[in-house]
């Protein structure tokens, strides 16, 4: 990664639970006329508040935070990334999602997840994100935009600190994080590697991060998706197409 001597940070606000906020963010970013060489979707929620997203358009707060929000943001910024190519998209996925996440094809909007196990909602959202990542890598082939999924390992971020303590699993994960998790720096390593490693140019679709049995080691390991539907190309394509339809019907202007 080249050393940068002069930088300027331009903070901008976006609420990933609100399609309205995401649309405004993209409009404001476009007005800056800046190139876009990297997009990291790191927003995440586990066992958070029940109910809808901020603008009320999606029934599951967790599903829109972890999946539909990042999907919509990425879709709107894809032309910017293509124009600025070479560029990269990096999506934060999850070991729990790979182990336990299941796609409910009869409830992709998450209507049932509102009142069900909140951990199941998290796992489903992360499974869907990894599947979307794999399919987007296929669709971006030849555009100069590479797409990667990353797994941070077990890092002491604020993910579980912000979970609702009324859930026993949330309390358990929070205690485990206090005692065993690594510094957030190590959790960021897979994303930084995916975003900046020159040898990854043109190797879109990889899954980067610790192997499933060693969540505290090998943070820049490059491999394939671990298991389940994330390895099913037909399922990934189906989910992507259905997601486009769902988002198009949800946002007022549709999805071009």
From TrEMBL:
Entry keyword annotation includes Oxidoreductase: yes
SUPFAM superfamilies in the cross-refs: NAD(P)-binding Rossmann-fold domains (SSF51735)
Record flagged with keyword Oxidoreductase: yes
Cross-referenced PANTHER family: PHOSPHATIDYLINOSITOL-GLYCAN BIOSYNTHESIS CLASS F PROTEIN (PTHR43157:SF31), PHOSPHATIDYLINOSITOL-GLYCAN BIOSYNTHESIS CLASS F PROTEIN-RELATED (PTHR43157)
The entry's keywords: Oxidoreductase
Record's protein name: Uncharacterized protein
A Pfam family matched in the record: adh_short
Species this protein is from: Volvox africanus
GO molecular function: oxidoreductase activity
InterPro entries: NAD(P)-bd_dom_sf, SDR_fam
Domain of life, source organism: Eukaryota
